[in-house]
Design a protein that fits this description.
Blueprint lengths: L1 H25 L13 H12 L7 E3 L3 H4 L4 H8 L4 E3 L7 H15 L3 E6 L15 H8 L4 H7 L3 H16 L26 H5 L12 H14 L3 E6 L9 H18 L5 E4 L18 H15 L3
Parallel strand pairs: 1-2, 1-3, 3-4, 4-5
Helix pairs in contact: 4-12, 5-10, 10-11
Length: 309
């Protein structure tokens, strides 16, 4: 009796399974990466990193959306020449979490140079904290087959809900959650003026009292680790748009850049500074994220400094 009931249930479920399987096949390009963390952008970067695990990386970009959106791959390749370059930037990756993640990425790619684009938003003490276990990340990166990570991080309703959103994220560079990576892992924004979010655009840089100054300790630990690996670190200090800057923000920015120099300088690393001048609003997709032309212009400005001594 029990056996017959199980068989009948299986037969009833079979059409649903078949239809769902066919639908997933046609939507496979929009199925998000395994849910290793609670950050869709980071999950996508980890999966891309895993699939190219055997590739030697000469230049590795790490960081938050400041790396993902604000660092131009074109400018990096112009500066460093014909190198293997990979950008692993992801939304909301603050300096604390980055200090946990970077060793996992660096150990597996052994870059000669690491680029860390950042601005004051990366030290905003009120920002969302990424839920990430570096040991779990390392385990996911070491899997030979991606389907294993889906099984170990299974959440069918979540994956199905994300398919519709992924169609937008992968196709629309005018969306702030754009994840249409270029060949190197960057996702430059192309937000038309009429689609710029007024709230994001009006967001002023954090004040000095709002900064999580413990983040400088995490940056110091990252700098120390990279020097131990024989890797050069360039910290790229990124600007906010001119329209949200005032004298107080300028002073906070200058103090921040000097503090970063004090932190990484003893390890032989350098801070490249784009906050030493004002940048017009037309180069930005919101207060602190550059659009594609802006990312190219600011990245070139920064990397020219890397050649100066």
């Amino acid at each position: 009796m029990v056996r017959r009931f199980v068989v009948e249930c299986a037969l009833l479920a079979l059409p649903i399974v078949v239809v769902l399987s066919i639908w997933l096949w046609f939507q496979r390009a929009f199925i998000p990466a395994p849910m290793v963390t609670n950050n869709i952008a980071l999950n996508a970067q980890l999966e891309a990193f895993r699939t190219r695990a055997d590739e030697q990386v000469d230049v590795l970009a790490i960081g938050s959306s400041n790396a993902l959106n604000n660092l131009s791959s074109e400018a990096v390749l112009e500066h460093f020449g014909p190198v293997t370059y990979r950008n692993t930037g992801a939304w909301g990756l603050d300096l604390h979490r980055l200090a946990d993640l970077a060793p996992v990425l660096v150990d597996r790619s052994r870059p000669k140079v690491v680029l860390l684009p950042c601005n004051l938003m990366d030290l905003d003490g009120s920002a969302h904290v990424l839920d990430m276990d570096s040991a779990e990340v390392a385990h996911a990166l070491d899997q030979e087959h991606g389907w294993v990570n889906y099984l170990t991080h299974w959440n069918a309703p979540w994956y199905l809900r994300q398919v519709r959103l992924q169609r937008i994220r992968l196709r629309d560079p005018g969306n702030y959650e754009y994840l249409g990576f270029d060949a190197h892992g960057a996702a430059p924004l192309e937000v038309p003026p009429d689609r710029i979010d007024p709230l994001r655009n009006a967001q002023r840089p954090p004040r000095q009292a709002e900064l999580d100054t413990a983040s400088y300790g995490s940056l110091r630990e990252l700098a120390r680790m990279l020097r131990g690996q024989g890797t050069d670190l360039f910290v790229l200090a990124l600007p906010y748009r001119e329209g949200v800057m005032d004298d107080g923000a300028e002073r906070t920015m200058q103090a921040h850049v000097e503090r970063m120099r004090e932190v990484v300088g003893p390890y032989g690393h350098r801070v490249l500074d784009a906050t030493d001048r004002r940048w017009p609003d037309s180069l930005f997709a919101d207060a602190g994220h550059l659009n594609k032309p802006g990312a190219l212009q600011v990245s070139r400005y920064l990397l020219r400094q890397a050649s100066d001594r």
